[in-house]
Amino acid sequence: MTAPDSVPLHALTEDNLASASPDLLRAMIKTFADTLMSAEADAVCGAEYGQVSDERVNHRNGYRPREWDTRAGTVELAIPKLRQGSYFPSWLLERRRRAEQALVSVVATAELAIPKLRQGSYFPSWLLERRRRAEQALVSVVATAYVLGVSTRRVEKLAASLGVTQLSKSQVSAMAKHLDEQVGAFRNRPLDQGPYTFVWVDALTQKVREGGRIINVHALIAVGVNADGQREILGLDVATAEDGAGWLAFLHSLIARGLTGVQHVISDAHTGLVDAIGAVLPGASWQRCRTHYARSLLSQVPKTAQPWVATLLRTVFEQPDTDAVHAQMKHVLDALEAKFPKAAEHLDAAQHDLLAFTAFPYEIWRQIWSNNPQERLNKEIRRRTDVVGIFPDRTAVIRLIGAVLAEQNDEWTEARRYMGRELLAKARLHPIESETDEPDLPTELTA
């Protein structure tokens, strides 16, 4: 196999754009991959290809073909062969997705000469189709902030690296419309895979420009386990305040879309959430996240005593059955009362919500006693939103977070079950009786 030709990126881009070739991204990935492998082989040899050098320790010996399947299609790579020993790119041995993302990100940062029209606008559809939704949304949000003139210095640098500084407002609008339609369809789809026995909810604070100033808004997110045992993103909304009215409206919207069969809601102690659960999901128990509560309890004792208190609390969750859990909680309360009465009072007030998981089968306790599964999802969301920093508007928040959630939902659909069907059926045999009267709350979001 002959050595791959070295093609200038500018020439490659212009040739493909001029012919409106749908293979542009695949061709660019091949060019970058071949160039990267050639550079790595040169480093192994100690000199560039064809160069005479005293530092050379090895020589090239042709190429061997290797097909690489990517979301842009199958790319035929030319892997350099060495006269002595062997060379194989380490990134091809990694998970394909990680290596592919690395190369695609390099390709995506190339500055493309996107044609402008005197009337109307043009934006190549394949640039949207070939990217994952979250990547599309990130580019769209950055571009929106840039063309509206409300971007920060960090976003301006990112806009330049993404090659969106040459896009017109109409082009950015077309891009945003395409994504908003996808995210909107995802957010408003029927929740028809119930019953959703277990639901996790959380809120993420984001900064948004609104009315000439920067304010905090809260992205409310719900995740559930459907009848098949798969995790599913149930909903996303943005509220001005993280209060009872916001949670009430959010939960009502889930019910309107078909949410049924909820028996257990897991979350942190968000303001107004418990009352909203009682109003909208009567009969469902509330599990206070043990991880978040532990941090709250530790704040009640001196720093030197925190390791002891943390270990003490952990023993409650290491018991083999419900009776043992409640018995151990009593021992822990007695031990705390002797040394830290204030902490004991704090734990005593929270124990009912902290031990709500014991009403369900032991086999799923670890999955339903904390909000840790949601925290992992939040980490992925923050990885994208932190790049933006300050969003140009609320729609941009929904666009980016919604795209991340839609992708995660697709991955969960193809993954193994989060809970077995038999365990779910067993869990549904544990009816939960509400111990509090339903609060009198407004039925609409007023904040």
TrEMBL record:
The protein, known as: Mutator family transposase
MF terms (GO), sorted A to Z: DNA binding; transposase activity
NCBIfam families: transpos_IS256
Pfam families: Transposase_mut
Similarity annotation: Belongs to the transposase mutator family.
Upper lineage: Bacteria, Bacillati, Actinomycetota, Actinomycetes, Kitasatosporales
GO biological process terms on file: DNA transposition
Function description: Required for the transposition of the insertion element.
Domain of life: Bacteria
Keywords per UniProt: DNA recombination, DNA-binding, Transposable element, Transposition
